[in-house]
Amino acid sequence: MKTININESNGERVEVMALFNYSQAPCQPLYFRKRGGDEVEVTDTISQHIKFVGTSCIHIFKCLIGKRSCRLEFNSTTLAWTLFEA
User: Fold this and answer.
1) Which residue blocks in the chain are alpha helix, DSSP H?
2) How far apart are CA 17 and CA 32, in angstroms?
3) Residues 58/50, Cβ–Cβ less than 8 Å
4) Under 8 Å between Cβ of 73 and 85
5) Which residues contact residue 53 at a Cβ distance below 8 angstroms, ignoring those fewer than 6 apart?
């Protein structure tokens, strides 16, 4: 697994493979890929919540990648995923 080095103030856009309508959670991120990088598996989703910003709905997932924690955010208006180090 590659080392993830991300600045908290500006997240990094990533491509995410997610499973929708999984169990009681509406969305479950499975893995992501940084631009030009390898796939990184999401080991576990610790929590998730929704934040409303203007007309956008931001779905926030706190996840584990191995033993490291991170945050994945999905913007329902732009359909963009952003990765932040927690």
Assistant:
1) none
2) 6
3) yes
4) no
5) none
